[in-house]
Protein: AB hydrolase-1 domain-containing protein
Amino acid sequence: MMAATGSRWLFGHSYGGLIALHAALRQPPAGLAVFDPGVSIGGSFPAAWLPAFTRLVERGRHTTAMTMFLKETGLTPLGRAPTFVYRALAYMLLHGSDGADTRAMMPTTPREIGEVVRLDSDGRRYAAIRCPTLLLGAGQSPAYLTGVLPRLAELIPGARYEIVPELDHNAPDLNAPDTVAAHLAAFLR
Structure:
C-alpha cells in the first residue's frame, strides 16, 4: 500500500495493526500508528474457539459462526449476555445494509485469527521497529487487545501508547473516526 500510494506513514487497525507492525519491521515508514492491534504476546490472544468457528464458516453456518465470534471475542458491549442476544446481533449484522460484505469477509477471519496465533511470541521481534510509533487502544475493548500495548511500548524504541477510555474497537471505521483521526493528527505533528 505504501508503494502504491506513495505514503510514508502507516496506520493499522485490529488485524491490520498486526500487518502494519510487521510491515514496519521490513520497511520502516516515517511513522507508524496502530489501533487495537491483533497481537498476541505470551498466548494473550484467546483463540480456543477458532477450530469450531472455522468449521461453522466452512459449512456456511454464518449466523451461528458470527454468534460465536461476537461472544468469544468480546468485541461488543454485551458482556455476559445470553447467547440469543448475540444471535440476534449476528443476524442483524449479516442481514443488514452491510450484510453481504460481512458474509463475504467471514471466510478470511479464520486465516486472520490463525495468523495472530501463529505469530504469538514474547514480543521481542517488535524491538526492531525503528520509526516513531503510536500505540492506540480503546478503553472499551477487551483486555487481550489493549493489554499488549504497554509491552509493545517498552519494546519499540520511542513508542508511546495511549488508551482512549470512551472508544470501542470499531472506533476507527464505524463509531468514532473523527476522534481517532484527531489522535493521529496530533501524533503526526
Remarks:
- The radius of gyration is 17 Å.
